[in-house]
Structure formats: structure tokens, C-alpha cells
Amino acid sequence: MSIIIELESFKKTNRFNGKGAISLALVITDRARAGLPIDPEKLLTKGLGQVKGLGKGAVQTILARHKIARVLAEEAGRTSRDNIRKMRLYVSFLNTLPRPVNIEAIERFWIDQVLAFFAAKPFKFRVDAAYSIRSAVRNLLGQAKERQSDLPGSRYEGTMLQHLVGAKLDLVLGKGHVSHHGASEADQADDRAGDFVFGDVAIHTTTHPGEALVRKCAANLAAGLRPLIVTTTSQTPVADGLAEAQGINDRIDVLDVEQFLAANLHERALFRSENRGPKTLELINRYNELVTAFETDPSLRIEIAGR
User: Fold this and answer.
1) Are the C-beta atoms of 243 and 249 separated by less than 8 Å?
2) Cβ-proximal residues to 168 (8 Å cutoff; 6+ apart), any chain
3) Taking the CB of residue 137, how many other CB atoms lie within 10 A of it?
4) From CA 283, how far away is CA 261, in angstroms rounded?
5) Burial class of residue 187 (count of CB atoms within 10 Å of its CB; 0-12, 13-18, 19+)
6) pLDDT digits (tens, 9 = 90+) for 10-23
7) How far is residue 221's CA from residue 34's CA, in Å, rounded to a whole number?
8) Where are the extended beta strands (E) located within 42-198?
9) Which one of 8, 27, 238, 267 is most buried, by most CB atoms within 10 A?
């Protein structure tokens, strides 16, 4: 069994997920460079209440080797019975590994967990009375696009767009009236008419409309459905142009997601400022419920800035 598979199993079994556990694993792995096995009793302070050397400075020194400047944990070495318990578990794990042990590979594994932790911080939905709801939605999707550019192969923007639309539909129609799916499977399945289907409308959410989507819209029309594409502001002309090239532009609705969400929030708030905050919170809460139910990446969650 590879060391990475063993580490994944250990992490999952012992819940080494938070910044404290990851900090501890990094520091003890660094200690293992001096040789294995490690005596866990020698890793305790004189008072036996803390793990020796477990602190912000030690952790940041390790991170600096990997060109990571962000602070993982301000109080990585604080007194904690759980730290000691986890230290013993991890030391036992290291001590039982077959020799020779690839310490570099183990450290790289925990560095990857650090990067995942930083990425997992929720997006911020900023509501400012001085700016429009459209601006807030644009900023939110912009955060997703920026994170996506840092992690090649990820689909943060498209996944966020899909579940924001799904959350809006649930609030308008009521839960249970439309089916939801994970972003990796939504709308690409041949047996599904769109990301969401309600009545005679097939809704497609996308950040990059292409010819395949327009062909699917044509299939919707042939099946007696009315296609509706919800995309980003910059991509609405693209979707319109593709539909025109297929000769079906006058039979497809293409909507800008910023307007799609902003108009709904205004309407549900009855155009009153005191209602916009609670209605926005309802949308974000439902979005987070969908992400929890249908996605495996917690970094897709959104929180209202300032709450």
C-alpha cells in the first residue's frame, strides 16, 4: 500500500482535518527527520500539558519551505488534551510504517492538506447599501472565478452559478418541485433535459455556452420544452450568437445570472430595504444546503460578510 493511501486512511479515521491537527502533523513529521521510532513521551513539555515545540513559529517555518506565507494557525500550540491524544496517534502511525520512510512524501501530503484548508474557506457575499445587488452577485462569482484560476481543472464558478440558480428556484417554487444534482453530473447526462426542469421549461446554467448546449436546446424544442439559458454577463452575447447561428435564437431565452438573481431578490423583498437582508440570507442558506447535499467540496459554501 502506498504511503499516500495510508495517510489518507489515517487522516480520515482519526479526523486530522482541522488546522490544529494539520499543524501537529507537520511539526511531528519534521521531528521524524531525526529518525524513527519517536518516543511520544519526549514530545511533551515538562508539565505534560502540551506538545513540545508545537507553535505558530514552527509551523510557519515548515510552510515557508514550500513558499507558503499565509498563517495556518495563530495558536497551534495551545494547551489541548486532544492535541496530546492526536500526537500519540500520529507518532504510533509513523513508528509502524515500514522502513525506509519517505519523510519528504509525508510532508508533501500534509502541505497539500494545508493548501486544501486555505481553499476551503467559504466565499463572501458582500451586501453594501451603497452598491447594487447585481454588484454583490458579480463580486461573488468573481471570487469563484479567481479561485478557479488558481486551481486548474476546478469548476468553482460554474458550480456556484448552478446552485445559486437552484436555490432561487427552491425559494420561488418551494423545495421538492425541481430536482438537484451535483455539478459534475448536471446537464451533461443524456437522459436529462437540463439542469432544472419545471413545467415546460428546461433551464441550463453555464459559464461557457457552446454548440453542444445549443444543440441540447434544439432537442428541448423538439420535445416541446422551452429552453432557458442562465449564464454570466459576458457570455450572454455568446449564447445569443450561437443560438442565432442555429436559427433558434428567437425561441430561446438567455438571461444574465446577475439580473436573474437581483430581480428575484428585489421582488421577494417587496422592494423594501429592510427586507433585502433577510431575503438574501434565505438565498445563501438554501445555496449552502444544496452544496452540502450535492457537492463534496466545503469551500463552495458562502457566508454573508460582516455577520
Assistant:
1) yes
2) 260, 261, 264, 283
3) 23
4) 9
5) buried
6) 999 998 977 889 99
7) 68
8) 123-125, 196-198
9) 27
